[in-house]
Amino acid sequence: MTDDPQTLVSADWLAAHLKDSDLRIFDATWFLPGMERDAKAEYAAGHIPGARFFDIDEIADLRSELPHMAPPVEKFMSRMRAMGVGDGHQVVVYDALGLFSAARVWWLFRLMGQKNIAVLDGGLPQWLAAGHPITKDKPTIRDRHMTVTPRNEMVKDVTQVARAAKLGDYTIIDARSADRFRGEADEPREGMRKGHIPGSVNVPFTTLLNTDGTMKDPDGIRAVFHTAEADMTKPVITTCGSGVTAAVLALALERIGKTDHALYDGSWSEWGMYADLPIQTG
User: Fold this and answer.
1) Could you tell me if 257 and 264 are in contact, meaning their C-beta atoms sit under 8 angstroms apart?
2) pLDDT the model gives residue 56
3) Taking the model in full, what pTM does it have?
4) Which of 19, 120, 170, 270 could form a disulfide with 94 if both were Cys (CB 3.0 to 4.6 A apart)?
């Protein structure tokens, strides 16, 4: 794996840079409701030294009825300042499942115009497998200002996605499992219709990962998108259940040099809720 401080770094890279004064680490663990696990409690029980906890559900737009929508710029800035993360810092984000929710925080930083952020490839499981330490100690926090320049082209709302689905000028890629995409499995959230956005293609985020939870190399990533018949000549919109694993697709696209991608923040939590929006099954 080629370490890239703007996309993906290995456990050994992080271990080598752990004492860098400009390094900031986030534990962005988040679990689906049905997993019945407590991310904050697991962070408290043990985390990578220096890591702060990034609460995806709180550092969000709480005015929205949809889960963990991207926060207003001012809220993002204030939360980062409170956690001592700002200009000039290299950020590394990980999660306890391997490569799941950490990519959402990577995408959020990119949305806010921050480039020096990477996901820990394989997350906490790879860190532990490599024999690196964890701690219960919380880091010392010092305020740091962050300059934010939002990149609004990296996020799409329901109106923009509906237009793209109708015109076919974007490739819409859904990160959910194949049975959810086809409408054969129930959605984890109540009240959701089953199926997918018309014209979208399915790339379950797990197909982009190796058996150890690390991301496939660029050739492997390209092969997955090719097999799914995802048209890479068009700009891409990624989607999923609630905007979390769609960011794994975004990270994978970035790894193969496909930079004209945006994330549908409402994802199926929004699309599947409104009866007037068309769906496909099968």
Assistant:
1) no
2) 97
3) 0.97
4) 120
